[in-house]
Amino acid sequence: MAWLEGMNEVLRNLNKEIKNIEGRTESGMIRAAIQVRRDMEKTPPIIPVDTSNLRASWFIITRSGRGATSTPTFSNVSKTTGERRSVDTQQMRANHERVTQKAYSEVKQYKYPVLIMGFSASYATEVHEDMTKKRKRPGSGPKFLEQSLIRNRSYILKVIREEARIK
């Protein structure tokens, strides 16, 4: 999996706060991940869309196996122009399966609740990081995941605290 610029600092700050919480539960993390995903659809910068394959490739993986791991439906038809694209939907499905299996292998290494969320599309990092590309979807832009995590930091911590025992 590719690592996104700026994510180290965001995650380091979140992890520092989370370490102060005992009895962390996956349900709070899943609620937070769902909020982040919803936020990326409504608060700019939102997820860029052409065929909606990037949006469809979203996943949530937890140590216990809970989360959104089903194989999404991918398309080769542009949402903006209606034209067919040279998108290999079989390859998108295979890549999604490979990425989610790798994420599951990673979270299984921990003894405490862990969640990985992201996009399995092979071009997700490129779209997320590209500050120069003009987007067709109004309000879409780079750093959509990173900005959603930053915007929702307080909510993420609140939800995890609600689901966990506080020291």
Kindly describe this structure.
With 167 residues, the chain is mainly alpha-helical. It is 46% helix and 8% strand. It has helices spanning 7-18, 26-42, 53-56, 89-107, 124-129, 144-151, 153-163; strands spanning 21-22, 58-62, 115-119, 165-166. The strands form two sheets. Strands 1-4 form a two-stranded antiparallel sheet. It has a two-stranded antiparallel sheet with strand order 2-3. Helix 2 packs across helix 6 (144-151) and helix 2 (26-42) packs antiparallel against helix 7 (153-163).
Short structural summary:
The protein has 167 residues and is mainly alpha-helical. The protein contains 7 helices and 4 strands; from the N terminus they run αβααβαβαααβ. It has a two-stranded antiparallel sheet with strand order 1-4. A two-stranded antiparallel sheet has the order 2-3.
Strand content: 5-15%
Rg of Cα set: 16 Å
List unreliable stretches of 5+ residues.
Answer: none
* Number of strand segments: 4
Question: In this structure, how is the largest beta sheet organized?
Answer: 2 strands, antiparallel
Proportion in helices: 40-55%
Global mean pLDDT: 86
Across the major sheet, the strand order is 1-4
**Rough shape?**
globular
State the separation between the terminal residues, measured CA to CA: 34 Å
Helical region count? 7
Task: Write the element-wise H/E pattern from the N-terminal end onward.
Answer: HEHHEHEHHHE
